[in-house]
Amino acid sequence: MAPETIHLPLSLSLLLLLLSLLLPPAGCDFYGRETRIQRFWRFHVDNPKSFIPGGNRKYCTVMIRRRQISERGKCKRENTFIHAMAGAILDVCKAQSVKACKVGRKNCHTSDHCFKQTLCVLQGFGYYPNCAYVSFPKYKKISLACTGLPRVPVYVDP
Hints:
By secondary structure, the protein is α+β, with helices and mostly antiparallel strands. Helices cover 25% and strands 23% of the residues. It has four helices and seven strands; from the N terminus they run αααβαββββββ. The chain has helices at residues 10-22, 36-44, 56-66, 86-92, and strands at 78-82, 98-99, 108-110, 115-122, 133-140, 143-147, 152-156. The strands form two sheets. The protein has a four-stranded antiparallel β-sheet with strand order 2-3-6-7. The longest helix is centred in the N-terminal third of the chain and has 13 residues, at 10-22. The radius of gyration is 17 Å and the shape is globular. The termini are far apart.
């Protein structure tokens, strides 16, 4: 008897390949050599939304420290976490309408529907990891800069 063959839709196969590239090998500090898509996933995707003791009040401060998110040693002023399935986020890059991003890029795609998100805003000023954030839950469309073939997100446009 011949072994069974599993047929996956191309989009699911690409998603599995993409996710395998996103996960660093066990025990490795991978952040220094990550790709733009890996950085995007680390900085901006948390699905399902992580449970943090202290709830929304502590969510951003804990997640930004846990994900090692900073800007050249300083606390990042703002960061958005998207709480959605990878496929739904990747589908945004398939949107036909491409516009200029707010921050100098020309390849932003806007979602057709709203996503659950958390906006993290820095309180005061500081140097990583001594950063404190306020969390703001949001439910709105997202705008992503996408690159490559197939197109993948590399930046969340504020």
